[in-house]
Amino acid sequence: MSKPTTRILLCDDHFVVRSGLAASLSLEQDLEIIAEASDAVEAVAAYEKHRPDLVLMDLQLGETSGIIATEVIRKADPKARILVFSSFARDEDIHRAIIAGALGYLQKAAPREDLLEAVRTVASAQRYLPPVIAARLADRIGRPEPSPREREILTLIASGLSNKEIAPALGVSEETVKHHVSNLLAKLDVRDRTQAVTEALRRGLIDIRTR
Q: Which pLDDT score, from 0 to 100, does residue 135 have?
């Protein structure tokens, strides 16, 4: 008796990547690619039209975000099963994807066997996270997160600005900046500004491209 076929929607902004994934996954008798999308708008429209069993979602969809597409799809259908398959492995990216409603997260560098396991696991409505990622997310639970203002200050620190220079840029006192920096060090569990920037970049709290 053959296994039920899992109908998959592929969402990736690179044609070559989509083609490779489609060719690889289609080798499995229980997996079928029913539609493809190259951006968030196409992803949402394709989901509404085809109602796939699984969405394989990239985080970066050209000028749009896979996280936005995930949020919209899950809002329209809370039972949607979405597996994020991305080159990114920053804590913030993973955390945002899970919060948006993704059931699983896997890096594109993962072996094919891991991808097949992740696809079948999420298609059965179970969560899939590699052990290392699961441990990092568990460690993050309950940890206080930097506020939007504190992230703004982190970005300015990463740009090389001192507290004295940050204060007028934000229209606040230098004492207020010092207070925010002190909170940041505590929340990130680091000793100084350099470590704060390093940890923030590692976790994806700030983007080095904004520097």
A: 80
Cβ–Cβ < 8 Å for 77, 191: no
d(CA 203, CA 151): 12
Boundary-marking domain end, from 109, 140, 171: 140
Q: What is the pLDDT of residue 205?
A: 81
Alpha carbon distance 180, 178 (integer Å) = 5
Element (H, E) at 135: helix 131-140
**Domain range for residue 129?**
6-140
- Quickly count: other Cβ atoms within 10 Å of residue 116's Cβ: 16
- Whether 51 maps to a domain, the answer reads yes
Q: What pLDDT sits at residue 210?
A: 41
Q: What is the pTM of this model?
A: 0.69
**What angle separates helix 148-158 from helix 174-188, to the nearest 10 degrees?**
100
C-alpha span between 32 and 133 (Å, rounded): 28
What does the pLDDT read at residue 142? 61
Positions in the chain whose pLDDT score sits under 70? 1-3, 139-142, 208-211
C-alpha 170: how far from its chain's center? 29
**The tokens of 104 are what?**
């699983």
Q: What share of the chain is helix, strand, coil (3-state, %, to 5)?
A: 55, 15, 30
d(CA 145, CA 36): 36
